[in-house]
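$ run holo --ligand "iron/sulfur cluster" --emit tokens
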Amino acid sequence: MNWRDLIRWERMPHILCPGCGNGTILNVLVRALAEKFEAGELDPDRTVLVSGIGCSSRLPGYVRLDSLHTTHGRPLAFATGLKLANPDLEIIVLTGDGDAAAIGGNHLIHAARRNLDVTVICSNNLIYGMTGGQVSPTTPEGAKSTTTPYGNPEPPFDLCELVMGAGAPHVERWTTAHPQQLKRAIHRALERDGFSFIDVLSQCPTNYGRRNDLKSPREMLEWLRENTSTKDEPGKIRIGILRDEERKPFHERVHELIEEVSGDEEGG
Amino acid sequence: MNWRDLIRWERMPHILCPGCGNGTILNVLVRALAEKFEAGELDPDRTVLVSGIGCSSRLPGYVRLDSLHTTHGRPLAFATGLKLANPDLEIIVLTGDGDAAAIGGNHLIHAARRNLDVTVICSNNLIYGMTGGQVSPTTPEGAKSTTTPYGNPEPPFDLCELVMGAGAPHVERWTTAHPQQLKRAIHRALERDGFSFIDVLSQCPTNYGRRNDLKSPREMLEWLRENTSTKDEPGKIRIGILRDEERKPFHERVHELIEEVSGDEEGG
Amino acid sequence: MSGRVEFLQGNEACAEGAIAAGCRFFAGYPITPSTEIAERMSERLPEVGGVYVQMEDEIGSLAAVIGASWAGVKAMTATSGPGFSLMQEHMSFAAMTETPCVVVNVQRGGPSTGQPTKASQSDVMQARWGGHGDYEVVALAPSTVQEMYDLTVECFNWAERLRVPAVLLADEVVGHMRERVILREDVETVDRELPEEGEEVREPFPLEPDDLVPPMPVFGRGHRVHVTGLTHDERGYPATDDPEVHRRLVRRLCNKVRKRARRIHESVGYDLIERESDLALVAYGGCARTVLEAAEELNATVFRPRVIHPFDPDLVRRLLDGYEVLVVEMNLGQYVEMIERALDAECVHALEYPGGYPPTPERVIEEAERLQG
Amino acid sequence: MSGRVEFLQGNEACAEGAIAAGCRFFAGYPITPSTEIAERMSERLPEVGGVYVQMEDEIGSLAAVIGASWAGVKAMTATSGPGFSLMQEHMSFAAMTETPCVVVNVQRGGPSTGQPTKASQSDVMQARWGGHGDYEVVALAPSTVQEMYDLTVECFNWAERLRVPAVLLADEVVGHMRERVILREDVETVDRELPEEGEEVREPFPLEPDDLVPPMPVFGRGHRVHVTGLTHDERGYPATDDPEVHRRLVRRLCNKVRKRARRIHESVGYDLIERESDLALVAYGGCARTVLEAAEELNATVFRPRVIHPFDPDLVRRLLDGYEVLVVEMNLGQYVEMIERALDAECVHALEYPGGYPPTPERVIEEAERLQG
Amino acid sequence: MAEDEYTVEIDERLCKGCFLCVWTCPVDALRESDRRNERGYRLPEYVGGCRGCRQCELICPDLAIEVRRKGEGS
Amino acid sequence: MAEDEYTVEIDERLCKGCFLCVWTCPVDALRESDRRNERGYRLPEYVGGCRGCRQCELICPDLAIEVRRKGEGS
Amino acid sequence: MRKEVRISGFGGQGVILAGVVLGRAAAVYEGYNAVQTQSYGPEARGGASRSDVIVSDEEIMYPYVRRPHYLVTMSQEAYDRYAPQVREDGLIVYDSTLVEPNEEHDVEHVGVPATRIAEEQLGLRIVANMVILGALRELTDLVSEEALKRAVRDAVPPGTEEVNVRAVEQGARGVRE
Amino acid sequence: MRKEVRISGFGGQGVILAGVVLGRAAAVYEGYNAVQTQSYGPEARGGASRSDVIVSDEEIMYPYVRRPHYLVTMSQEAYDRYAPQVREDGLIVYDSTLVEPNEEHDVEHVGVPATRIAEEQLGLRIVANMVILGALRELTDLVSEEALKRAVRDAVPPGTEEVNVRAVEQGARGVRE
Ligand SMILES: Cc1ncc(C[n+]2csc(CCOP(=O)(O)OP(=O)(O)O)c2C)c(N)n1
Ligand SMILES: Cc1ncc(C[n+]2csc(CCOP(=O)(O)OP(=O)(O)O)c2C)c(N)n1
Ligand code: SF4
Ligand code: SF4
Ligand code: SF4
Ligand code: SF4
Ligand code: SF4
Ligand code: SF4
Ligand SMILES: [Mg+2]
Ligand SMILES: [Mg+2]
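-- output --
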């Protein structure tokens, strides 16, 4: 399958701003999916995108798969219902830093704890893009936003540390300046049975860059490339595979229990 | 000040069941507080208890201090407002495993991230006591509860790992079988400026013990004593001081910013 | 009615009704006085191959239920006031995305944590107005344990028929009492209409579907639909800037319920005991039991609706015009406001009775007598 | 009115009004079309020594506001429909604990995410009924940028006077438009009554306080009070099993607002432009601007309430009895249901106008003419 | 046996008979008795030998125990 | 100079002129031009020398680039 | 026929179950109408516990017990609290092992040493509830013995059916003698 | 007097600010009533942007522009979209650097090379909005020059007051000449 068959072209061009990192994520995702479909490793009719609210959460609307664009912060809770009710679905959750870790933080840690079998791609642009640039729980200390005009007084989350603290077995961090690696990470995440979390540092030129001396999308990518490293380097953000373990996914536990109780191999 | 002056005797005996660990926590807390008041290290008129909903969250109602018994899961959000609006208040949050980590998980991780200057005492009895014994996010795998009649299929949180992943600087774990150590931990927590989290493994004989072969409060404490260790021992739950760092508390950052902007030393 | 005779709690009967209606997914968060529903579901669902999951909160519970519904499974949650408040954003989402689902609210005394273990009917208006935006739900109020069973089935059926959230507006009286209940085997169940499997559905939200309700392209069957809580066009695509699209969408969402008000009332049924009297008593849910008893004594007419929403002012007018009407509720006056819209407000009186228990028949009789002079 | 003349957005004026009213704490979570309120507060509060905090969600926002209020500081949050839905449990808590606080809802098109950037008045009933349990709030609807300023002040004043949550029921029309506004220096501000500092307050919730509103024993002043959302007795202690305690408490909580309905309407004011006509138009908020213009053309009477809740049926009856009444709203019929309670329902008509914009005056005129012809 | 240095008082109105005091006492100075209080809870009793470690006092969930060194006020 | 093995096509309707393609190209086969599309965005242009690494294709946030090996279908 | 029954005692004695069994016997096996209610909440924690049953051959509308015809009581606290509410023509069945009746209450009293019977004759203290239920049945004929036993079998934990049925029988015998 | 003005262009040209400045000049410094509105949301992202102002000496009730008297436009897309809505007796002021007027629209047109003036005479492309605003004022006398300049000083980022005021002046000169 060609990735072009996965785009709702009638909706293009999309609403994202010029140079928005979410666009690159969309691009990488549909190619990764197309490869998986092509290889017969996934079935497009059983692959579902779920998102919350935010610029990043708009991506599913451009992909020609079943998709559920939910409420702000809650995609993982919706995904929990989808996956448990139909374990055959392969679920990808597209979310933003605000969606996943501000209002949605609780669902994030509980999905990680339960080891819900979903692939979470968090477009972490360090800001609330959709609403015009307010501080987010990943905005760096001191950074400017429309609600931190004097600089952000709050320390940010390290999202990977957070989900690992909650028990997530498969955790990676990449950036939109690393699209090839990101594509491979998505492949890995789709292959893992269980909760996979990919923290994608991404750029919001419109609402983050402008206020924080990163004038163009290119400067932002330059920054991302220069300030990240796949090794533990002082002053750099660690990217790469941060954890990759195997644990039985939640739906399997639940359905094994059902089979045991109902005596039905098919789980009813 | 004698601890007896801190009890609302007209409400005693309290509603807790015989042998409930929450009672021991109340006992230890009022003694720790009385000592601090006695030493002049804290002012009872400026010490506030905040809680959510649950058996554990009933404790503030027995203590003769200002106290706010809020909604299920939200005490830390209420505490955020109290502390920022009046930084002179010393705030202690009393919560349960369900209150703090199920419905309240998001406020927990954000308070930890911000380094909100509160002392959180989480009575972690591995169950929803108040509502009659449903599974909680800390219930061990396989354990019985009224909503896991076939055994709990979910892996539990390690609450200390969770808050450390979120950035908490001061984290300890004790049990109700260690009341002396718990009292010292409360002293330490009250002394720290910033977010202190004490995970207190506690017993709910009525709703946990009964269903999980721990017939009496004593058997439950025995279990707690035997299955915990201040060293990393295989098969045992680690108790003790798990992290003890210094970071500037949130209200100080916010009020420094206000002073800077308003030019007012008093913060207005 | 054929089926197994049981002596159950209302909450247990509700769970059994759900399973009889075809519910195979329950996501919830415990809260008194609804918890027994979750507890029984956690035991019963695995037996019939269904999924029980306890979520991290009520917001997540209704989200998971909606997710399960889009996976093609009949799904339900149960809660009480505080949890119902937390579910309001998702009530609104379910209405907007036309997701069949059932939400049970076993009402307890509010506001806030209030009286956790006591009965109340103070979330009646919330069931309709609790979420933001214009939408309509179906809400039914059971007065007996048997109705906890039967009306749960009705909730599922109306949810599936209309693709709306349906609310079982129960209360602690019926939730916690035990009574005989026949676990009927002959329940009529309704399943949502589905598009042909494997067919891409290009207009999942047509402007004027048959009966105003389009078939539901559930996920995993090749329909390739996009579902969003944003205002969407026929294709399901966001169209948030076009007033006409919004107007037509929300009008249809409301009309599919409003235009059926009479049919729903007739199909679910109501009690009307007409007596030669100037006085008519109105009550519903757990409180109606008192009022039925008092009305006999008073020789007054009684109207007991089972359908609380949608309200049908014409029906009420037809049934109750000309009476002095006394509405008895375990709250500070909610359903009575609807009755006031339908009738001459001067003929409408209320016995507002919060506090945790229905009034005794004696209390109702006293009030009626005071009213009559 | 003396003060600085400015040309501001309604949302900005709201923030300025809050500061003028003495607000020194804002906790919020961004949401269109209310975000500019948070943004301006984040800039302005530190200048006046106040605290701005962006919380993790709307639930936490109202919680923090209530917390700040118990710390003795006037506090506010601002949101729109989806966030307002999430706040409902805490609206109910604020009512129960008698916590003065202000919640601004700049209404946008719902249900669900709906039309995030478009105007609506579809949360009008939610403002009163959105939370569980019986409670009352004060809700005011501004029609101009100046009213965004003035009514924000009024919200604070009524919140403090009555110890209730007060809602500024704004909409995107007034939230986003810019107009001249006088940032009045002579605003009258009301502060809650406090008990004597250092005094232990043994009956913080007396059964029958003066004016039904007890002084507020804020924390940190030695009052040693326990505050709970459970049903509580005079001492503030949980008393969840006593029907009489519950009844008296919730009745007082409602009555302190209900019994003042007339006074609130009179004090906040309403527009009544009487013309010789059979027709009266009713509108409020951003939509009223259209209606005022149309009424002039139609030579019809207009009633524009600023107070939406508590509703005062007697006032409406007194003002509008005998007219054919046309209620114009940016929703599918909400305030009109209240009007129907007050008047003969047959004389009450609605121009329901969801879609994101108020109707044009021409559209209203057309509707009025259709009605009259 | 020398007279105890400590007195151990149990407030019978408060005690709920959980016997955690009995469990915790390092010197078995407390034991279960057959006496019941008004509400039907069985009470512990002091049998002597207290060393004043106050562990029973601190663990009691019902704040029912007071250990006092003889001759001291409370 | 040998003829390129690859063609690089930019869909002008989709391009928003962010120039991330220009930034990422390891051989500077793309550059900014002064041409604008209908919506006023400045367009990049292909200047030759593509080695087919497809990095531009993958990074383009607007799915506007297609790199093709000559003689191959798409 | 409409009878209001209150079964009372302290937590852990199984009074709720006793009420459920009685209601079940009446509703499922006798074709009567029956409603069982109980009190929930803090007040129900520790201290007195009660389970109310109304049995009637007509429809039962208002579901709560106002003035019981029959009071079964297994604790002094419950006896003291509920005895004054019993109708004049009513009956109080009390566990004479635990309850000291009060002469002031001028209604018929029958004492059954239910706890002792349970301990001594059945070796299981916790079936005292079934003993006293058997006694109540025997005294009132509210439901048939057969119906009660079937309801007991349905409602008790699997494996304990026989001892519970025997408890009912012993209770009946205890008042027959 | 009641005039409806629409200022339009593409994102980043500062058309919103131009509307705010005009409204401010009218409302704060001229004592008129003025309402400024704009469109928010996805439709406002990229592509056409607009800022509407109504200026009146009476109360302004319905706040939206229906048929503008004056259309100021700085992009072709916006011109094409909004020109047909202008009143017959209206006026279109367009940035002749960027917009090609269409003969079909039978209303008065005045072209001002605002962007060129901004770039060449002020060295700052982004003040083109103030250039064209100055031109509009000069042509319509909607507000006084003084009022406009004061409003500009209030509204532009600190430090850029002078260049913006000069832009207004250059715009006026551009149409005076
Ligand atoms: C309940 C609720 N609160 C707030 C909003 C407003 N809102 C929409 S998106 C968003 C934040 C988006 O930030 P993020 O998740 O980081 O996504 P981005 O736009 O940056 O990709 C907010 C606050 C909403 N839609 N619903
Ligand atoms: C919004 C809401 N949901 C649910 C409840 C019901 N509820 C009360 S306490 C509780 C759980 C208590 O568990 P935990 O926090 O562990 O406290 P414990 O009783 O075990 O001390 C629940 C679910 C509630 N009061 N409010
Ligand atoms: S606002 Fe930021 S995140 Fe949103 S589309 Fe624009 S650049 Fe992307
Ligand atoms: S239910 Fe459990 S946690 Fe609650 S009071 Fe009883 S023993 Fe304690
Ligand atoms: S620990 Fe306290 S409550 Fe428990 S038995 Fe001892 S004295 Fe009684
Ligand atoms: S103080 Fe120590 S030694 Fe004395 S009775 Fe208590 S536990 Fe035993
Ligand atoms: S990366 Fe894509 S959108 Fe950006 S300039 Fe290149 S082709 Fe255009
Ligand atoms: S494919 Fe590689 S080499 Fe060719 S133009 Fe793109 S980035 Fe440059
Ligand atoms: Mg973001
Ligand atoms: Mg717990």
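-- notes --
The longest helix of chain D spans residues 145-162.
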